[in-house]
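note to self — DONT lose this again. spent like an hour looking for the file last time. sequence + predicted structure for the chain T wanted, 162 res
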Amino acid sequence: MEENNQKKFTVTAEILASHSQRFLNLLMDYIGQLFLFIIAFSIAVTIAETNGNKDFAANFVKNDIAQYTFVACISLVYYNVFEIFFARTIGKFITQTIVVDENGEKPNHERILVRTLCRLIPFEILSFLGMPPRGWHDSISKTFVVNKNLLDERKKQFYSLK
C-alpha cells in the first residue's frame, strides 16, 4: 500500500501489445533506423571527404567493428530520443502502442536507457518467442509495451472508481 493510502494502477496482460503489433513496431523502427543511418552516414562521408579522406566509405565497408559500432550508435540514438521524449517510436505511433512502467506511466530516462542498451544483447529478438510478448529489453528494464487506447481506458476506469 502506498504511504498516502492510494492504490496505483498496475499494467495487466490484457493491455499488452500483441505479437503482431510488436513485430510491426520492429519493422517500422528498422525502417526509421535505416533512414537515420543513411543520413548520418552521408554526413560522415561528406565530412571525411571534405577533410581529404577519400577512402572513408570504402574503409568503412571493410571494417566490421566500425559497422557494428555505427549501427549500434544509430539504434541507441533512435530508441533513446523517441522513447525518452514520447515513450513511443515511429512503429509505436503507427500501431498505437506506448512504453510504460508497471503503473502505466512514462518510464524515467534511466529505464529507457537500460531498455535501449538491452536491445544490443545478442539474440535478444528470440526473447519474444514466449507468452506474453515481452522481450528482455522489456523485462530487464521493467517496462511494458501496451495498447495506448486500452491503457487510457483502463486507467480512466481504475481512477474513476476511487
